[in-house]
Amino acid sequence: MIAVPVVGVSAADVTIRSSQLTPRQTITRDIGAADARLEDAGQGHQAILQSPQGDTFAPARQSGSAKDSAAPGSAETAPAAVDPRTAAPAGSRAIPDTSSYADVTTASGVMSTEVRELDAADPIAAGIMDLTRGRFAAAPDEVTATEAFLTRSGLRIGSEVRAHGLDRAYRIVGAYELPSKLDTAQLDFRPGAFIGRYLAARTAAGSDRGEPMSSYLVAARGGFTWDMVQRANTLGVVVHSRTVMLDPPADAEVPLYRLPDHGKSAPVPDRAAPAAAATVAGMALLEVCLLAGPAFAVGARRSRRQLGLVGANGGDRRHIRAIVLSGGLVTGAAAAVTGTVVGVALTLLLRTRLEDYAGSRFGGIALRPVELLGIAALAVVTGLLAAFVPAVTASRQSVLASLTGRRGTRRAGRVLPSAGLVAVCLGAVIAVLGSVHSGNAYVVAGGSAIAELGVVALTPLLVAGFGRLGRWLPLVPRLALRDAVRNRGRTAPAVAAVLAAVAGTVAVATYAASQEEQNRHAYIARAPRGVLAVGLPSEAGRGVAAVRRSVSADVPVRLRADVSRLVAGTRICDAGNWQAGCGNVMPVLPEANQCPLVAEGSAGTFTAAQLRSFAKDWRCRYDSVDPAIRAEGGLLVGGPQVLETLGIHDPAARQALAHGTTVLFDRAYGDHGSLRLRVTPDVSKQASTVATLPVRLVTARSYGVKAVVPQRAAAAAGLRTVPLGSLFTTSRMPTDAEQQALARDIAKLGVTSEVYLEHGYTGRYGVVLAALTLFAALVTIGAAGVATGLAQADAEADLRTLAAVGAPGRVRRTLSGFQCGAVAAMGVLLGTAAGILPAVALRGVDRLQQRQMAEQALAHGGDSALAHVDVPVVVPWATIGMLLILVPVGATLLAALVTRSRTAMGRRVQD
Fold it and tell me: 153, 264, 291, 537: which sits with the fewest CB atoms below 10 Å from its CB?
């Protein structure tokens, strides 16, 4: 029991330390063996100032913005491109590294993937890509693929890859992986062999894929110093230098840090992680002591005759305590050595799986002797602490009682239960106050820990209370329960161990399930799960029918709803195009339905009470959902089938659409039973007209669609329509192969389409809940097994008497099973009740913090929808049900199976 936690902690320590890369390893995975990576800052030939890491920069002549927030210039004022090689020192050598995205063929169809042009076989690039099979591309018609790409595409080494718009085929000659991005699907071509040709072909076809990301890896004699970096910055080049990142200059030598809003921020100390680690370590120590203590008691009880002989031959209490404590010391030391060795070996054995799960390769196996020795020392201390109480108990027994195997009657004390009751009340008050008023998670955690320790102290009294249930149980379960109650000295520690494990499991599971439900509510779905939306907003209706046929052929379609979009003007432009000559049709928001915050233009004119009231005002609730199929203003032209694809089952709404009445979902746009549409033939001009459509208001989740306009209503209002695409409901979720086949067929049509498949919210805590349940089950069975072993040691004479009078063997097995089940049931029940409090309190902290953030957002004129605080508390009934039912039943059956039916007969000692 001591070795198992040591195995887990040592394995976790080695795994975490091995996954933490050194600065040199991190740099190598980014720039390989090069001395620097040079890239255009996008500011033209204007000088810049950068941080030593190269992740932040700003124009030298103004305060500017960081790279991650710098917006590119417009097409008219775009800065001239800078060749980064101009910043390379004389005598250096540079190789290009270019990346982009492309649609390439797969075994099932077409998929979009990252493409790269890097001579990975060049010594400068060593360390960026790890070759796993085959070789790197050496010819213009060869390509190397990541293992993730081969898995997703269904291709293999020797297969050919083609890109949409190019007649050239590329043969896969090897497989590699990116050490820090194992899940990345990527293709690596020879420099100049693919990206330029592909982007030119897509541009010629009218599909702009944007500019590729280009940089150069440079090998310079003597490295790339900070002075060289600053000289490169004067040319508008950003530098990622190995020398500078390994030995950064002082902050005073970094000009960027002297600019406003670009000062180097001091690292914020992470106090939560050490506190959490200390809490976990303390609870783990308590758990091991509660589990191992009864185990040492079992050993001491089985050795009581030998200990009695020590006393009979002149040994005093000190010798008895020393003997039992020595057993704890030896056991702890053996557990420390065994657990540490097994933990390290387990990490080595599971290294590949751990790396695949984390999505990154280790930098190597990192063994920290000080940390491993600390873990081992903790195991030794735990062994001593666990043996302390059994040692004291054994030393207090008289020699006669030890030799005869008899135990005296000892009344239960009142101090410990009283202290436990006070601790429970105090801890609960602290946790509740911390949840409601302070919003401090440390206060809640401290209060919860105090309350749980109080419940542990109350365990003997609570076990005694369970004895009253025995009158309604059959004979054998009643004997098992009353035996556990009479011998609370051995039952209470085991029940407390189960209680602690189950309480932690229930607390974490409840918090995780609540967070999962909150994430589910926060997830913004663009359509019901399984709905496939295919739109062609830039094709003016061309190819829509062919795309619909392709979808029906490649995907398991159940229902299809065709939709169109409203257009205005003589020129049919892309949806959302605001260039001169393009028109649009947009819904008009009535002035009476505008949010006061927007109407006034500033939140500064409102009181705090008014701002809070806006959070409940429906006019200030904005629908930020983008429809699965893009149309201006969220207006779709279609029939009743659209409602079904959106999951709206309203007979009145279907009838309204069938009779030519527009169905409106967003009541903010309702204007006395009508919907007003502003028709603008040319967005560059102010001239526009207003069309009015009668509507039927339907309150339903519409996934960003504001209204569905029947074709008849559009024609009656003089509005033009153009086919846009379709919404498809599927009989099952389409597979990756089916989606790739659809992408291939659409690519053959030569049209630009937007395909979206709603997968719905994907939970992240399912594995966590399963692991917690398994952990609690193992601890429960282990603790109950220890208690059962101790009960058998105590009742050995009675069991022999049962066998002597002819009791069948199944009585012994059944009694042991119910003894184990009784301990498990009591611990699980108490632990479940104790675990709910900290979870509910922590969710209260989350609610309070989010409410404070919402108040701040309103005070600064933010979206009032942010003030809607949704922090649910969800009880994981499946996990709790398994703990309450399956775990005790499993413990009962397991104990019954491993108990021997027969026992060796012996002579009972007479009085």
Answer: 264
